[in-house]
Amino acid sequence: RGAAGSGADLAGRHVVVSAGGTREPLDPVRFLGNRSSGKQGYALARTAAARGARVTLVSANSALPDPAGVDVVRVGSTLELREAVTKAAAEADAVVMAAAVADFRPAVYATGKIKKKDDREPEPLALVRNPDILAELSASRPRSGQVVVGFAAETDDVLPHGRAKLAAKGCDLLVVNEVGESKTFGSEENEAVVLGADGSETPVPYGPKETLAETVWDLIAERLPAAPR
Ligand code: CTP
Ligand code: CA
User: Which ligand is nearest to the CA of 18?
Assistant: First the structure.
């Protein structure tokens, strides 16, 4: 598979993939969430395992079944995702942040169910910022030569926004795709451009999420330092 043409070009490598979408609890029965299905992250995990990698999949609220041969860590909120990804990244050759991470979480978590009070209008919902996990990973690089990859869904000015985001995050690759109401979310297919910190631009035509996943691993494999023998 891939440029090297090898069936197991990721053998001996440990890779971490985050998938799905984080949920920020308001109270025991409610959360703020997003529409990510986890399909792209799961496709990344499956394809990496097929190429010989040891794969840790940090899965946030995906309904998909655990892929065979992959270590799955299930998480709910952004802070849980951050803890699991940071721990796994300590010994990883590559980290791919395919999860849709909530930018904000409720400032307070109510331990009991929030009640509507009489006929008063509701209070505005106070939010606080979540940590930027991708930026933290890009800055920390616990293993030298570790490749860090992000995903960005944009609705307009896709490439300029993607370039700016790649620079702001400090990651090596950013997979940029255009989203809309019916595009990408829950879909089996995807279309994207993979931007490299080195200035490279790799378009991936509309097709199965597996195809995009293979291209991402090709680009990662090219950037990994030579495997220790
Ligand atoms: N990401 C992250 N931590 C966050 C937010 C996003 O690790 N708190 C990661 C996502 O997993 C993704 C990448 O950053 O790989 C880009 O996410 P995106 O939401 O497009 O970026 P933001 O910086 O949050 O920009 P925006 O204001 O457009 O939402
Ligand atoms: Ca965001």
Answer: 1
